Amino acid sequence: MIWLVAFLSCIGLICAEAPFNHNVHNERVIGGHNAKPNTWRWQVSLQYDSYNDGSYYHMCGGTIVGNFFIMTAAHCILSIDPSPYRVVVGEYNLYEYDGSEQFRRVERIIVHPAWNEDLAKGNDIALLKLATPVYDNGYVAVANLPYPGQMLPHGFTCYITGWGLMDNIGTVPAILQVAPINVVEHSVCSRPEWWGSIALRTMVCAGGDGIISGCQGDSGGPLSCFTDGAWRVHGVVSYGPAGYCNQVSKPTVFTRVSSFQDWMYSVMQSV
Prior knowledge:
Largest sheet: 6 strands, antiparallel, barrel
Number of helices: 2
Radius of gyration: 17 Å
CATH architecture of the domain at 157-258: Beta Barrel
């Protein structure tokens, strides 16, 4: 779901014979590997029931930012009606019920007011308010966030996680994937041979080595970086190149969380 131009809906459906219908439409981390269980505890799977029949599709990632709130990408929101969505926290293997999961209905969707469905204009961020809170069962955690306005230096290593495509032939993972990915500073990412003028300062670029990238299904998920003594979510997967996801000089682009914290805190205090 991180194409530059086309917003992807379901590119794949994988039915799992397990409780709660672990059906998946995935964007996967390319160049990654299976994450260790119970490590990226703020990662969520945002799922959608297209036909109102109880069969859910993994469509995007997300991040726990409060007991009642999930952060994701605005372009993941296919409908402002919250009823077809659910959030799964404590998830690891999408095909199996591990006993660590918590399933939550979405009560309200708040998309950034400046989002206009043009990825190049930025503001690709949304908050989901849950009908009931998530709780600490040992497998979930509220994410730490960066300082407002904080930017990462060129070459800083962060980690991308998700259940998106693992390669350019459409291989879909069952287990959460993780990969190290290096930040590309704005002065580089905004060069014409990179992303040019559509790489904004309100975005974080990472990757572009032709090896590691996000891909369809990773949208909305976190860019996790160890800064200031803690793991913090600095980015929300937003877009990448159409076609092959892992292209040289076309890094994965994330919404920069530190640019939107005032808005996030205002929403979480008012709804």
